[in-house]
């Protein structure tokens, strides 16, 4: 009896570990099912056959503000014009910094000239934890086959200074461009920087 209980405990532990295991570059990207700012439900499988970018965001974070000074909008337009699906993800729980409703999301998208395909609301944090999203911004690139090809920082200089964008190595842009060309990003994993995700 004790042996069976022990085996059950081990199995439960392994299941839990697998459920929250960090995603792996070169492996299938974790699926998700979440609503966007208009109430429409999206799952990763809906975008089969297309490259997908995931951008974790929090409009009140200084590091996000830095990149929404024009850089993030330009990246969004550059890649969506190439038929890439760009999903901005908000995992801020209700009552925390960065949590917004659909009306505020629409206002921010318009006022900032942002161009994501959709803004996803991950209030439960399930999607963010599945991707081990730690900061805003935290960037991911998924290829047409649904394989995660890049995860990490948007660039190489972890500051909130707009002037540093031009000096930095654009890790995310380099990775996205490589994936669009059918190549493997190098590096494929970098350290993200920004504000902590407000789970």
How would you describe what is shown here?
The chain is of the alpha+beta class and 199 residues long. It has one domain: Glutaredoxin (3-Layer(aba) Sandwich), CATH 3.40.30. Helix content is 30%, strand content 18%. It is built from six helices and nine strands. It has helices spanning 2-19, 62-67, 71-80, 102-112, 126-130, 171-180, and strands spanning 33-36, 41-43, 52-56, 85-90, 118-121, 135-136, 138-142, 148-152, 195-196. Strands 2-1-5-4-3-7-8 form a seven-stranded mixed sheet. The chain has a two-stranded antiparallel sheet with strand order 6-9. Keywords: Signal. Residues 1-21 form the signal peptide. This is Redoxin domain-containing protein.
Question: Secondary-structure blueprint of this entry?
Answer:
Elements: H1 2-19, E1 33-36, E2 41-43, E3 52-56, H2 62-67, H3 71-80, E4 85-90, H4 102-112, E5 118-121, H5 126-130, E6 135-136, E7 138-142, E8 148-152, H6 171-180, E9 195-196
Parallel strand pairs: 3-4, 4-5
Antiparallel strand pairs: 1-2, 1-5, 3-7, 6-9, 7-8
Number of helical regions: 6
CATH H-level homologous superfamily name: Glutaredoxin
Instruction: Give unreliable regions as ranges.
Output: 1-19
How many individual domains? 1
The largest pleated sheet is described as: 7 strands, mixed
Structural class: alpha+beta
Helix content: 25-40%
Task: Please give the CATH architecture.
Answer: 3-Layer(aba) Sandwich
